[in-house]
Amino acid sequence: MNPIVYRLLAISRAKKRALQVAVDLVLLVSVFVIAMWLRLDSFAFAADHRVWLVLIPVLPTTIYFFVRLGFYRAVLRYIAGRALITILLGSMVSGVMMAGATRMADLPIPRSVPLIYTLLTFLCIGGVRFGFRELVSYAQNRRKERVAIYGAGAAGRQLLQVLHQRSDYVPVAFIDDAKQAQGTHVGGLMVYAPNQIETLIRNNGVNVVLLAMPSATKARRGEILKSLESYPLLLQSVPGLDDIMTGKARIDQINDISIEDLLGRDPVPPRPELLGANIRDKVVMVTGAGGSIGSELCRQIVRQKPARLVLFEVSELALYSIEQELETLQAALRTQVEISPVLGCVKNARMVERTMRQFKVKTVYHAAAYKHVPLVEHNIAEGIRNIVFGTKTVAEAAIAAGASSFILISTDKSVRPTNIMGASKRMAELVCQALADAPRNTGTTISMVRFGNVLGSSGSVIPLFRRQIDAGGPLTVTHPDITRFFMTIPEAAQLVIQAGAMAQGGEVFVLDMGDPVRITELAVKMARLHGLKPILFAYPKVEKPGPGEIGIVFTHLRPGEKLHEELLIGNDPKATSHPRIMSATEIRQPLDELYAALDQLDVACDRNDIERIRRILIDQQTAYQPNSEIVDQFWTDGEDHGPLPVEKSSADGRRLTLVHG
Question: Rounded to an integer, what distance in angstroms lies between the CA atom of residue 287 and that of residue 347?
Fold first, then answer.
């Protein structure tokens, strides 16, 4: 903004009013001089002191009249057309006063001068006001984003009114698909066709497009956004209709377009009987309740009105956060579900079983697990204890406590795994399948639900890209051709709940994830969504991108990382009653054989014998084929594994593990 304009806007209101009065006094005197000169075509009148006597009554009367009309209370930068009436009235009063004073005092002023003076006063005082308003507007607009509103319907018109009150946007055009609207004017702005966007960018300087179509489906929004993503535009949107109707958001809340809008799809309407079957009026427990999937499961579960929801979480902060969020959600939903937050680790068998017995849990969603492939590769023994033995502990506790349903949240990385995390998840599936058929399991239906990445989950690539964009780049992609499956968290959680309700025991349900997405294309889309031009580099040849550009750097596949993930081990998935849930036919392993392998795995983890751990996983029905060298940070040469644990019993029969060293 112009420094002079900024200083004028920054002074106090009282000083602004005093400045306006001073400017008007100068204008009134100047206008009188100009009116006399226009009439007499000479400045000789200035030597006659009697001419100036007319200003003695005119100036204070004019200012007083403007004050009485509230003229000086108006904010100049927002002055509107109705101010012209005030200016006209004030100018006429000033002209009448001049004519009256001239006649009464018999002053040497031609009779036409008051009329000329009145017209010039109106033009000058009005011109200064509106000129200043335009100057401020121009100075501010130079710093504003020039916006085209996509959607000339009711939401678009409402958004236009909101933008007029904001200091960061200046609307310059509408865009609409409807041919009957194209070429018309809405709120003073021309409505353009979508194929005229290049013209808007070139001629109107548009650099932001606001999507004002809150009722559009995800598919339609995706089509629009895909048509815009190749342009150098920042894409933003008003909230969706559901959020507006439920009071979660307002029409004036402008958000960046998320990658979920591009990759998301319209969910199949959930079947209410499946959503409520394992939840309504039952005690439900979610392990890993503070994680991405666990927390969304909790949100969906509360809506189904269980008798109680037990939040089992090892992280104090995550547990506190989800508890507070659920209390807020319940207030909005006007539900009164008992929420029981429990701090605990899934590896603690006694704690898990005690919790289930204490609250008489009937349905368990086991979402607690490590999921970051490279971190688990560097911490193999702990990863296996968390994923494999944690699942075994929770499933056995569910059986012992008399739970009626246990659902394991699994992953596509368990299919022909090349990393410890995926192999551990496959072992966890085998454990659940074996326990589903175990003789001691007399009433717990155990099932597994397998799916790929969820959009926006912690530790996934999308939040990473967002942080890298905020930091100025570059975006890092491990391989140009790497692909992954993606699904929104709410859709995944709803499908998990519905799949669990269809279980008969031992099924591995597979969610329809749609087509795999190339991570390179994902990075390009996210860059363009932020109005940046992506530039591809092959590591380590990385150059500094220019203005408005951001680099995408290809590094290398990390230990255990696959180029492409799969969802099915076999090729004969069975359809279910839900179009996006399939049932996979998987190889099972006898319980005694599997538990013998788990005993060996337990000892290998105690010793941190990574080579032995790998061999055990390969020998089981996991299809594990490691694709990298051992990178575990606690494994050295494969021979020296430190002191061995020695088990003893305490007085109350608890097992103690002592380390001699």
Answer: 11
Q: Same domain for 377 and 503?
A: yes
For residue 299, give both structure tokens.
């949100």
Are the C-beta atoms of residues 583 and 576 closer than 8 Å to each other? yes
Model pLDDT for residues 440-468, shown as the tens digit of each residue: 999 999 999 998 888 777 667 888 898 99
The pairing of beta strand 581-584 with beta strand 508-511: antiparallel
In this prediction, residue 501 carries a pLDDT of 96
Beta strand residue intervals within 539-644, DSSP E: 549-554, 574-575, 581-584
Q: Out of 22-36, 216-230, 358-372, which region has the weakest mean confidence (pLDDT)? A: 216-230
Mean pLDDT of 187-206: 91
Helix, strand, or coil (residue 291): coil
Residue 77: band (very low, low, confident or very high) from pLDDT cuts 50, 70, 90? low
Domain co-membership, 526 together with 557 = yes
The pLDDT value recorded for residue 8 is 65
Residue 613 identity: I
Q: In sequence order, which residues have a C-beta less than 8 Å from that of residue 528 and are 6 or more positions away?
A: 229, 230, 231, 534
What pLDDT score does 242 carry?
Answer: 58
Pairing of strands 655-659, 645-649: antiparallel
How far is it, in rounded angstroms, from Cα 546 to Cα 417? Answer: 41
Residues 209 and 115 in one domain: no
Q: What is the pLDDT of residue 648?
A: 41
> 197 or 639: which carries more pLDDT confidence?
197
Helix (H/G/I), strand (E/B), else coil: 659: strand
CB 33 within 8 A of CB 98: no
**Residue 477 identity:** V
Using alpha carbons only, give the angle 424, 426, 429 rounded to the nearest 5 degrees.
115
Contacts 24+ apart (CB under 8 A), 17-26: 17/72, 17/73, 20/72, 20/76, 21/63, 21/72, 23/128, 24/62, 24/63, 24/66, 24/125, 25/59, 25/63
User: Which residue range is the domain that position 527 belongs to?
Assistant: 273-582
Sequence-distant (≥ 6) Cβ neighbours of residue 20 within 8 angstroms: 72, 76
11 or 650, which is more confident: 11
Q: How many domains does the chain have?
A: 3
Beta bridge partners of 445: 405
Is it the case that residue 330 has pLDDT exceeding 50? yes
Indicate whether 415 and 547 sit together in one domain: yes
Residue 627 inside a domain? The answer is: no
- The C-alpha atoms of residue 121 and residue 174 are separated, in whole angstroms, by 39
